[in-house]
Amino acid sequence: MRLFKNRGDIYIPKTGKGNTKEAKVLFVLLVFIVIFTVVFVALLGTKYKSAAEFFGDGEVTVTQNEVQNSVDLPSLTGKTNFLVMETDDTGKELHYLILIQADKASVSYKAAALSTELSLDGKKVKDIFDLGGGAELQARLTEYLGVEIDYYAVFDSASFVEFTGKLGTIIYPLNSDIRFSGGSGDDKYTIHFNEGEEKLSGRDISNLLRYYDSEAKDYFSESELALKALTGLLNEENYAKAESLFRLFVKSTTTDITVRDFENGKESLYVYCVKNNDITIYTVKTEYDENGALTQNSAREVKGYFSK
Q1: Nearest-CA neighbor of 94 among 124, 71, 63, 121?
Q2: What is the CA angle 211-123-147, rounded to 5?
Q3: Is the backbone of residue 166 left (phi > 0), alpha (psi -120 to 50) or beta?
Q4: Rounded alpha-carbon distances, angstroms, from residue 250 to 152, 158, 247, 253
Q5: Which residues contact residue 16 at a Cβ distance below 8 angstroms, ignoring those fewer than 6 apart?
Q6: CA-CA distances (angstroms) from residue 25 to 22, 30, 99, 199, 255?
């Protein structure tokens, strides 16, 4: 009996004479394949409606739901400005501060990192914060920039790391290697990143934002990192845990964002989380004069982007 028609055909004699050990093994394998195929087809026919359902294990349905969500997103209007800050674990030393806007009409984010050395009428931002806290700084910057800052949130370093750790990690592209150790006492930090894409944890994000402000003076990169974190961490999976994450947020910050604000903003949060791969981002580069104040052009640009 010949099994195949091409070169290398296998012959199994009709009689036992001349049978080889290899031919017997191949014959057993052939029988096993036939039996397995029959069982597989029977299983597919009785338990699954289609091959897609069998191999997808529900993934096809999830994809359909995501498409449906993208179609049925509610329309939003308005702009909201947030001032986000981080301090050392004592709550006194300001590490960085970033002005962020959620533009709900265009479903976009805008970010402008401000230097902790920024001078407001001769007094540095970090000194204003040390004396009056986040609320005082919110009021002073609203007056100085000529834009309304709706909310502020101040994390200490440990709380920021804990909170962002609950949100997950992000992939961030670096243009060069960074090796740095800074800070003092209990507020020391170390950075060790390679050029290319890096997976950043909450601790990494905190340290890199701090490095961009205090050492590199690279406020453009600081803003870009903040936007990358927003679009990467505000997603559908985290929206499903929004209530518990908001409770942790309130526990982790000094803020004027209330439960009522959160409830009123859930529809907007839903849109941003579902649409997070299709959000427009704007990075505003801040520049400073010899006195530490924003240059006229930079102040004009910040006002233009963040005015309502």
Answers
A1: 124
A2: 80
A3: alpha
A4: 12, 14, 5, 5
A5: none
A6: 5, 9, 72, 50, 74
User: What is the C-alpha separation between 202 and 215, in angstroms, rounded?
Assistant: 19
Helix (H), strand (E), coil (C) string for the chain: CECCCCCCCCECCCCCCCCCHHHHHHHHHHHHHHHHHHHHHHHHHHHCCCHHHHHHCCHHHHHHHHHHHHHCCCCCCCEEEEEEEEECCCCCCEEEEEEEEEECCCCEEEEEEECCCCEECCEEHHHHHHHHHHHHHHHHHHHHHCCCCCEEEEEEHHHHHHHHHHHCCEEEEECCCEEEEECCHHHCEEEEECCEEEEECHHHHHHHHHHHHHHHCCHHHHHHHHHHHHHHHCCHHHHCCHHHHHHHHHHHEEECCCHHHHHHCHHHHHHHHHCCCCCEEEECCCCECCCCCECHHHHHHHHHHHCC
pLDDT attached to residue 103: 97
Measured distance between the N- and C-terminal CA atoms of the chain, rounded to whole angstroms? 85
Question: Residue 73's pLDDT is what?
Answer: 81
pLDDT band at 37 (very low <50, low <70, confident <90, very high): low
Q: Residue for token digits 């997070």?
A: 276
Q: Where residue 75 falls among pLDDT bands split at 50, 70, 90?
A: confident
- The set of residues, in sequence order, having a beta carbon less than 8 Å from that of 306 and lying 6+ positions away, is 81, 99, 101, 110, 112, 145, 147, 284
Over the stretch 83-94, which tens digit does the pLDDT of each residue have?
Answer: 999 999 999 999
pLDDT in tens, 105-136: 999 999 999 999 999 989 999 999 999 999 99
Q: 292 φ, ψ to 5°?
A: 90, 5
Q: Is the distance from CB of 129 to CB of 85 less than 8 angstroms?
A: yes
Q: How many CA atoms lie within 13 A of 49 on its CB side?
A: 4
